[in-house]
Amino acid sequence: MVSPEALKLNEILRNAPKAVDMDLAHQREAGEHAEDMTSEPGGVTYKDAPAVGGLWATPQNWDGESAIVYLYGGGYVISSPHSRRKLAGHLTNASRAARSSPATTWRPSDPSPPRSKTRRPITGGCWTRGIVQSGSS
Amino acid sequence: MLKLREDGTPLPAGGVPISPWVDLACTAETLEANAAADLMATKAGLMRMAGQYLEGADPRTPLASTL
C-alpha cells in the first residue's frame, strides 16, 4: 500500500523540472534545494569543519568514537554540505556515528583527477576501524 | 576508495554507497527501459553531467566508473 505522502511526492517530482536537464547555473541553484521537502533530523548538532570545508553532524547518542565520511550526492557538479545536511543527519542518527560531509570541488573548473582532491585531507592516514566512508551519487 | 588503495593509504572500515553512479558512460539498458518511471534523471541529462565532471577524461576509467 503506497502512502498518500509517497503518492504526493511522486506527483511533485514527476511534474517538477529535472535538474539534470537544466543549464549548469540552474542545476547548481536547484541542487541547493534538494532537501527542501525532507524532514529535519532530530537531535543532531552541526558544526563547521573548516579544514575540509564541510560539516560535522553529531547525534545525541554518539558513541564517542565512530565516524562516517559522507560524500554527498550531486555528481560532483552540484550541491554542497549544507544542501545535503539532512540526509547525513538522518544517517548519523541511525548509525550513532558523527559524520563529516566534506566539500567536494565542483566540476567543471577543477582539473584534479576525478574524485580525489578534496578527500585527501580527510582520508590521509586518519582511518581507524571505526571510520566508514559513505556517499550518494 | 580505489584511489586510496592505489596510493597505499590505509582504508576505512567499510564503504556504504547510496545509489552510487558507477557507470558514467551511461551504458546500462535500464536507463532507457525505465526512462518513463524515472522521476529524477534522463539519459541525455546524465550524459551531460558526466561530461561536465569528466572534462574529457575517459568515462570508463575505473576512478570514474567502478562498474
3D structure, described in words:
The complex is a heterodimer of chains A (137) and B (67). Chain A is an alpha/beta fold. In chain A, strand 3, helix 3 and strand 4 form a beta-alpha-beta unit. About 15% of the residues of chain A have low confidence. Chain B is mainly alpha-helical. Helix content of chain B is 33%, strand content 7%. The longest helix of chain B is centred in the last third of the chain and has 12 residues.
Write a short abstract of this structure:
Chain A has 137 residues and is α/β, with parallel strands linked by helices.
Descriptors for this entry?
heterodimer, A: 137 residues, alpha/beta, Rossmann fold, five-stranded mixed beta sheet, 4 helices, B: 67 residues, mainly alpha
Q: Structural class, from secondary structure content of chain B?
A: mainly alpha
* CA distance, first residue to last residue of chain B: 14 Å
Low-confidence stretches of chain B: none
Number of strands of chain B: 1
What order do the helices and strands come in, and which of them pair?
The complex is a heterodimer of chains A (137) and B (67).
Chain A: H1 4-15, H2 24-31, E1 45-49, E2 54-58, E3 67-71, H3 85-95, E4 98-100, H4 120-123, E5 131-136
Parallel strand pairs in A: 3-4, 3-5
Antiparallel strand pairs in A: 1-2, 2-4
Chain B: H1 2-7, E1 14-18, H2 30-33, H3 43-54
